[in-house]
Amino acid sequence: MKIAVIGTGYVGLVSGTCYAETGNTVTCVDIDEKKVKKLQQGEIPIFERGLEEIFERNVKQERLFFTTSLAEGIKDAKIIMLALPTPPGGDGAADLKYVLGVAEQIGPLLKEYTVIVNKSTVPVGTAELVRKKISNGTTVEFDVVSNPEFLREGLAVEDFLKPERVIIGTQSARAAKLMENLYAPFTRQGNPLIFMDERSSELTKYAANAFLATKITFMNEIANLCEKMGADVDLIRKGMGSDSRIGKRFLFSGIGFGGSCFPKDVQALAKSAHDVQYDFAILNAVMNVNGKQKIRLIADMKKHFGSLKGKTIAVWGLSFKPHTDDIRESSSLYNIDELLKAGAVVHVHDPEALDNVKKLYSNKINYFENQYDVLNQADALLIATEWPEYRNPDFERMQKLMADKLIFDGRNLYGLNAMHELEFTYYSIGRKTIKK
Ligand code: NAD
């Protein structure tokens, strides 16, 4: 089947490559000329585990193409996937200008029946808006389907090839059949393809992300309470997580969630609810608490030092989570901003995200390729992202390198018993501080 994917970012590139992997011929379209040029030269502009191998294979087999031309990209496509950005607008609502702008251009280019699939995260009612925009420009038959994407950055290829479920929002039997064929190779092991109406499908995505963001935030509030009450959030997590109604996942406390999805989706859902005169109170609380949680350790740091002016703070981790180079809404950057505001000198390390951060901060901070070099003469280490290489470091080497043996751990990477044995003063989230 010939497929066009419009928007070749994290979602578009991964999904396009994975559709090609199952035998489809896929053309990915993007307006970013530099990005398309790189892709045409065989260079992948993002870091995503496992992508390179299938990307190279499908390019070689001539099943995966890239272009900046929408007309060229959608020529003969039976399915057109929209994987376009839906960033927050000024009022928090998802900005639909990219999705609706492309929908407008698609109409006059349609030659025969086509299914236009929305993979972007969009508010309820967007499928109807897309349908209207397209029908303004064509008399050719088409269907608009909602197919929200649930992949996790860092595990995107695995998630896409073996999804826990695929949601298809459509009431057209013809479109449903095509979608079923497209996803048959990905759902062979019995993971469900769930059909529903478009509005429910659009809301499912927001509901899932808002629920996960709430779960994380709830645990962060418990952690903050633990510190005031002398309890240990790690033990509470274990106690709570053994209840199968609660589950073990998404119970880790830390310096809040970031990324391109949770913050914007919680905000957009709250705004959508507000628009239909529903006060979704819990979502406002989630956003408030998460905003404060992201920079929670800065207060501890200021208290510890008195003033941060002139202190050298090393930061481990810049991406919003491990295994990605994505720094959008990363808690780490919020901390860096606070440190700079307080007059600290900031040294940073990250295994994949240094280049992206350089584009934002240029010479305001100092960049290190090695996780130990960044510690040289540092007054403190702030751990902002739980990359695996930070989990079991050479503590003796760290003790020798740092000017002051002081760790602020925003991801609770180390056990308190182990930290008692070392020379570090150790602050973490929802647990006792170890002072030396
Ligand atoms: P992204 O910013 O990484 O990629 C979007 C791409 O669209 C960019 O390359 C941009 O140049 C391109 N683009 C913009 N306007 C265009 C146009 N007119 N024509 C062609 N290309 C155009 O975004 P993303 O992270 O891939 O997210 C896309 C959508 O998927 C969003 O709605 C997001 O909420 C949703 N989503 C993202 C994830 C994730 O983990 N990143 C997961 C699930 C869902």
Describe this entry's structure for a reader.
There is one protein chain. The chain has 436 residues and is an alpha/beta fold. It has three domains: 2-196, NAD(P)-binding Rossmann-like Domain (Rossmann fold, 3-Layer(aba) Sandwich), CATH 3.40.50.720; 205-292, N-(1-d-carboxylethyl)-l-norvaline Dehydrogenase, domain 2 (Orthogonal Bundle); 294-427, Rossmann fold (3-Layer(aba) Sandwich). 42% of the residues lie in helices and 14% in strands. The chain has helices at residues 10-21, 33-40, 51-60, 70-74, 97-106, 126-135, 156-161, 173-183, 198-229, 233-241, 262-275, 281-294, 296-305, 331-341, 354-361, 395-401, 416-420, and strands at residues 2-6, 25-29, 64-67, 79-82, 114-118, 142-146, 166-169, 193-196, 312-316, 345-349, 366-368, 380-383, 406-409, 425-427. The strands form three sheets. The chain has a six-stranded parallel sheet with strand order 3-2-1-4-5-6, sandwiched between helices. The chain is globular.
Features:
436 residues, N-(1-d-carboxylethyl)-l-norvaline Dehydrogenase, domain 2, Rossmann fold, 3 domains, six-stranded parallel β-sheet, 17 helices, 14% strand, binds nicotinamide-adenine-dinucleotide, alpha/beta, single chain, globular
Count of individual domains: 3
Largest sheet: 6 strands, parallel
Q: CATH architecture of the largest domain, please?
A: 3-Layer(aba) Sandwich
Helix content: 40-55%
CATH level-3 fold name of the largest domain: Rossmann fold
CA radius of gyration is 23 Å
Report the mean per-residue pLDDT as an integer.
Answer: 97
Spans of at least 5 consecutive residues with low confidence = none
Strand runs, count? 14
Q: Output the structural class.
A: alpha/beta
The percent range for strand residues is: 5-15%
Per CATH, the superfamily of the largest domain is: NAD(P)-binding Rossmann-like Domain
CATH class of the largest domain: Alpha Beta
Q: Span from first to last CA?
A: 64 Å
Shape: globular
Report the bound ligands by name, code or SMILES.
Answer: nicotinamide-adenine-dinucleotide
Strand order of the largest sheet: 3-2-1-4-5-6
| Number of helices in the DSSP assignment | 17
